[in-house]
Each structure stands twice: as structure tokens, then as C-alpha cells.
Amino acid sequence: MLRRLLPTLVALGCGLLALGWGLVSLQRIFSQERDDAHAQLRSRRDALAHAAEEALRQNLAKKLDESVPPLHAAVGDPLEPGEGYYINFRGYQFLPRLTIPMPGTGTPARDVHALLGARLKDGAPAGEWEPRLTRLRAVEAALAARDARGAATRVEELLRYHAANRLTPEQELPFLLLVVERLQRGPATTPLVRALLREGLPEDLGGFARASGLQRDVLRERSRFTRADFDFLHARIVRVSAALGEPTGDFLARAGEADAGMLVIPEELYEPTLLGESWYVALRGEAVYGIAVDLEAMLQPITQDMQARGLFDATGRLRLHAGGAVRPLSTLKLAVDMPQWARQEADIDARYGLKTLLVAVCGGLAVAIFVLAVVAQQRKYRFLELKSDFVATVSHELRTPLASIRLLGETLERKLAQAPEVRDYPARIVQAADGLHFLVENILSFNRIDKGRWTLRTSRVQLEELIPLLRDDLANVTNVPVHITSDLEGVELEADPGLLRMVFSNLGRNACAYNRRSPVEISIRAQMIPGYGCTVLFQDNGIGIPESEWENAFLDFYRLTVPGPEVHGSGLGLALCRKIMKLHRGDIQVASSGPDGTTFALIFNEPAR
């Protein structure tokens, strides 16, 4: 067959290769068109992104320059806003301010304040605090006596002593707070006492070197206090400031500043850099300056400017490319998002996809035509071979029984009266005629069922009644005894009895033909599946069917090749059995097979009764 198909295959292959080369070339053209269109859009987008990046760099540098004066002011004055500013000088971070309180739940500052207040009240000795408390009592006495000049002198003396004998912030600030609380008299408060809240002491009284007012000192030293101590000092300072009419807005705002913590600055900072998307830092001399930035807000005016100049429409927007935590400005990348461009890119891809689909369809059609042509040629030659094989097989099968009938008849005519050994010739003539009749009946039935010309004549069939008919059919098929056992008592089906008998007869004849044992054992039993149907198992003790041939055995005109003497047949028996079972909306399969025999399963979907 391959020799006959070779010229056709060569011609079709050459045509398919030529068409494939043309389709591949066409696909390359389509791909190049798509890449060029995408490159044009990408070039325009990159140009706009580059312009936006330069504008953003300039805006960031300008904003930092504008922030230097308030940044310096925040470093020198704790009451100045410090949120959003960063300055690091020689490894020490001045801004953002560290607002994390000292860990723990102790209240040493509150305890000092309470202790001193109690000693002022009860007059008990106060140890190291006694010199200060003595001077404080003297001031209170002068105020009680309405001796303003004497009170001012004693306040100055108290503060000079205090400045000369410095304490730790945990002691100093509670003491100064107590001084202000004890000596404040509203609008008539001594200027030196009032100065303790905000301005701090004059330089000749020890000011400016360390002190700058309670409000500033508490903010500056907040990390030395626990949360409870800071809240205590903060509340008392606000209360006394309100009593004296001193401003507290900036003090309240600074006390509520969120702690930005320690920013991690790269060890080698060579150029302005973005830390995450919230800080912009730059190196100036030995100090690193930084400001908190809202990149989305800074991109808005750049976007509006580009829209005003008609560089992209109102739906376009700029966004920062995702990146690492540290991004030098030289590596800053912006993306331009425009729905219009996205639609254009989608249209480009859609057109490319459509063209690719057309190329693929053409290629698929070409392959399908090639396959169909090869299959058509193969089926043509296969049909011719099957026809030839069928004619040869049927001719041989018909010729053999006919020759036997003729020979036996002639011999019977000449010798019937002369030799007793020919007395069985009539029975053998009948056997040969039965074989010929069965073959012809199989061929005719197969042809009628295959053409859809068979009309089922169904009735209620007792399967047990088919067993005697099977014995009669197999009586003259072989010289080996045939033993049939059945377990079909009470099994009844709605079926065509003639066709069921044909199925049993074909399976029985195959059991006899493909058998090397004596006697031939056939077992037929039914398995009931309540509500689903019935399965009839037809088992023999033949030579078996290889598992790879289980489905091939049911093909039209297919005959198994078995060792030993040739087995005659047309290759239609099992194929006819399957067609008959399909007519009954059932099926036949090889349930098991081996050297001990084969079991066929006849599956009836109609529940048996």
C-alpha cells in the first residue's frame, strides 16, 4: 500500500511545504508590522516620560532648597515644626526628632515634683534639695508680703544658684516646673519666672547654654522620660502656660508629632536619592538634608502642564515605576499611562492576532486537506484490499463446503452399497451444508444490519430457552464433545430472539474453532444489576485473545492470527455480534481472556425480569 501511496504523498508533501513557506513568510511580515507599531508608541511614551522625569528632578531640588531655612530653624528650636524634615550631620540625626519615650512604667520626674511639693508644704528637711527649697520659700514669702522688688531679687538669686548647680533633666525640669507653678501670679508674674516657660533665662543667669524654656526643654529631652512622665510634664506645662497667657499651640503640635524613627541612609550617597517614595535626600557638605515628599501630588502639576501643552489627553497620568527602597535620581523612571495608547496597543495586538489566526487557519486547512487526501487514498486502497480479501475468503469458504458436498455426494453414489465406512457421509454432507448456510446467513445479516435495513422483531425472550438451540447449532460443528452449562433460570429480556440466537451461535462456533482442548467447555450465566440492566457472561476454555487484540477482534473482516492449524472463517462473527448488541442498545466486550479461555460480556441496558 505504501508503494501505491508514495507518489501521492510526495506531491502532497511538496505542495504542503511550499504553502508552509509562504505562510511563514507572511507571518514574519505581520510580526514586523506589529513590532514597528509598538515601537512608535513606545518611543513617544519614553520621550514624555523622560521630560516628566527631568521636571520632577528639578521640582524636588527646588523644594529642598526652599525647605533649608525652616529645616535649620527646626534644628535650633524644638518648637519649630520638624515633621517632614531630615538632617544628619556626621552620623547624628537631628531631624526627624526622635519622639520615642524611654521604656518602662516608672515616673521619676513626677516623683521629684511630688516630693518637692510635699517638702514645701510640710517644711521637712529635703536633703540636697534644701538650698533650692529655702530660696524658693524666701521668694514665696516676699510675694506674700507684696514685696515685688525683694521677690525679684530672691528669684534672681534662686535662679543663679540653680544655674550654678545643674541637675539631670529628670530633676531639673520638674523643679523648674514647680518654681513656675508656685511663683506664677497671672499677669503680675515676675518676668524671670514667665521666661522659664518659653524664652529661657538670660545669658547672665546661665541661659542659652542649656536652657531655653520649659516647653523647649521638655520636647528636647523627651527621650529621657517615660511616657507617663512626659504626659505629666506636658499637661502641667500647658496648664501653667494657659494661666500665664503664654502660647501653647506650637508646643501642643510638636508634642503630637509622629516619630519618623531613624531613616536608613546609604553609606555611599553620591547624588540626590529617593528613599522609598516618601523621602528625598541630598548631600550638602558634611550634612545630609532631606524632606518628606508626596510624589503623587508632585506629579499632578507636571501632568497638568503636559495636558495643557497637548502632549497627552485628559485621561493620561504619570506614575512612578516600581523600584527598590533606595533610588538615585539618575535612575528615576516614570511611566505614562494613557487609556488611548492602551487601546491602540490592544488594537495592534488584535489585528496581529486576527492575521495570525488567518495564517493558522490556512495552515490547518492545508494540513487537514493533506490528511484527508492521505486518508482518502488509504481508505480507497484499504477498501480494495478488503474487497479482495473478502472475495478470496468467501470464495474459499464457499468452495470448501461445496467441494465437500460434491465429493461426498459422488462417493456416496458410487460406494454406498459396497463399504460400510461411508455410512456417515450423509451426516457429513448435512454438516457441510449447515456450515455453508451459517456463513451465508452471517454475511446477509451483517449486510442488512450495516445498511440499516434490519427491523427488530422483539418479544419477551427466556434466555434459558436459547441454550438447547445453541446445543443443536454446535452439534455438528466439531468432532470434539461440547459441554454447555448455564445459569439463566428466570432471566427474561425484551429482544429479537433470532438475533440473540445468532449471537450465541457465533460465540459458540468461535469457542469450538479456537480451542485445543477436549471437551469444549462453555459456561453462560447472568449477572443482575438492580435498576440498571443485565450482563450475560459467555465463557469458554479456548486459547484466549491477546489483550492488545481485544478491540480489534470486533472489527469488520478482522481475523486473529493464532498458532497451530489454520482456522477458517470470514472475520465477521464478532463484528456481527457487536452490531446486534448495538441494535438492542447494549454492547459486547471482552471481559477477560487468557490461556484458560475467554469471557465475553453481553451488556443489556434494559432491566431483566
Outline the structure in words.
With 609 residues, this protein is of the alpha+beta class. Among the domains are: 77 residues, no CATH class; 152 residues, no CATH class; 150 residues. 54% of the residues lie in helices and 14% in strands. The protein contains 15 helices and 15 strands. The strands form four sheets. A six-stranded antiparallel beta sheet has the order 2-1-5-4-3-7. It has a five-stranded mixed beta sheet with strand order 10-12-13-15-14, covered by helices on one side. A hairpin with a 2-residue loop joins strand 4 and strand 5. Helix 11 packs antiparallel against helix 12. The radius of gyration is 55 Å and the shape is elongated. The relative contact order is 0.08. The model has no long low-confidence stretch (mean pLDDT 81).
Question: What is the topology?
Answer:
Blueprint: H1 2-76, E1 85-89, E2 92-95, H2 108-122, H3 130-144, H4 148-164, H5 169-183, H6 191-195, H7 214-220, H8 227-244, H9 249-255, E3 273-275, E4 279-284, E5 287-292, H10 295-308, E6 317-320, E7 326-328, E8 334-337, H11 339-415, H12 425-450, E9 459-462, H13 466-475, E10 482-487, E11 492-495, H14 497-513, E12 520-529, E13 533-540, H15 573-583, E14 587-594, E15 597-604
Parallel strand pairs: 10-12
Antiparallel strand pairs: 1-2, 1-5, 3-4, 3-7, 4-5, 6-8, 9-11, 12-13, 13-15, 14-15
Helix pairs in contact: 1-10, 1-11, 2-5, 3-4, 5-8, 11-12, 12-15, 13-14, 14-15
